[in-house]
Amino acid sequence: MSDPSRPPAVGVLDQGTDLAFPPGFLWGAATAAYQIEGAATEGGRTRSIWDTFSHTEGRTVGGHTGDVACDHFHRMPEDVRLMAELGLKSYRFSVSWPRVQPGGSGAANAEGLDFYRRLVDELLGHGIEPWLTLYHWDLPQPLEDAGGWPARDTAGRFADYTQLVADALGDRVRYWTTLNEPWCSAFLGYGSGAHAPGRTDGADAVRAGHHLMLGHGLAVQALRASRPAAQLGITLNLYPVTPASDSAADANAARRIDALANRFFLDPVLRGSYPTDLQADLASVTDFGHVRDGDLETISTPLDLVGINYYSRHVVAAPVEGEQPEEYWRAPTCWPGSEDVRFVTRGVPVTDMDWEIDAPGLVETLDRVHREYTDLPLYVTENGSAFVDVVVDGQVDDADRLAYFDSHLRSAHAAIGAGVPLRGYFAWSLMDNFEWAWGYTKRFGMVYVDYDSQIRIPKASARWYAEVIRRNGLAAE
Ligand code: FCB
Description:
Low-confidence stretches: 1-17
Radius of gyration: 21 Å
Bound molecules: beta-D-fucopyranose
Number of domains: 1
Mean pLDDT: 94
Distance between the termini: 20 Å
CATH class: Alpha Beta
Structural class: alpha/beta
Shape: globular
Largest sheet: 8 strands, parallel, barrel
């Protein structure tokens, strides 16, 4: 009999009792530049739309900004050591555009690039695979002043910026994500206004979505030309969309939201076309006149992988005459042309974001992308949950977050068992950070951050995750 108090040797699983992941499964954690770096005015960095937005009264909870955040810019080596202690195989970070190309055009800022060079070298020195996201929402403010993502030219600027980063870091970074969650950039940034730059125009949101994808395609072409060995992908935030009942009207509401949330991006990127039902639904908003010949070919430039961020499910119902739909995130709407669809809560347990916890939805999402869209390797590039954390005797026992990770990893395992080529999983997030419009009031980290002292405390979920990585699997129960 084995001694149950002794952990199994590294790489050895308890026979028959564990859910083993495939060898080489890429276990990681993710962050984003504006959410953790701070040093907002140092090293030649200039303003992004998130600096402007967070410094505008009433835009973020408590007027919180990313000026200091986790001070990662100054504490990077210490943070990488922490990642190494957790045994991370990979770290997904984003490059701050206004740090490496202040103003969003022209020459690179050597000091800015140098920070990422040091970060990547530090990661490689600890045997951690760097995974670089080019755009996690921090558009340089001058580009917004010139029209932002609704303006076509921004796509070209993004490709130029990509070239600068490829030239500087392409020799040591293998995995590249062009955009993180273009749905949020387009529909929260230009539709509902809940995110920077805070504009509220449905047609602009649709245009922004198109130009984001155009920028993605141009960036893939630039990277492919200069770094042929790189693994290139995009990260989409996808949701299973379920009708609240089996009525035809609710099914139609689900079809409409699925088109806006998922197929708006999946179809152009992976099939080279916009869904016809989406175009019909948006007829009162836009005639798609902003789509030029050749755009969809550029947008669907072949990729090496697809990144999926998964958090929750949307359950929706048809409009009820005379009844206002519940306000969703922030009026007027992030669902142009489908403002009247009602989002239904089912009364199942939620996180501190009020997002319903739905682990089976991860299997559905992965399976759908694989079955309907692509044989490419898939990666969960974000998954996680906010809960209220309490520090007791210097420890954080985040049982809820741990359970969330555990249930979703079981789903990831089930998806692999069902034939989905899932190759890696990144927890959101490595550490607590600036949660956009929610400021520092929502904690997603596996590592607790005390924002006064900048002390980091690995939570119980972090220690648990380290053990999952070490075993390359989960205990059966
Ligand atoms: C995703 C974002 C990430 C973080 C998590 C909670 O939409 O990509 O930056 O805010 O949600």
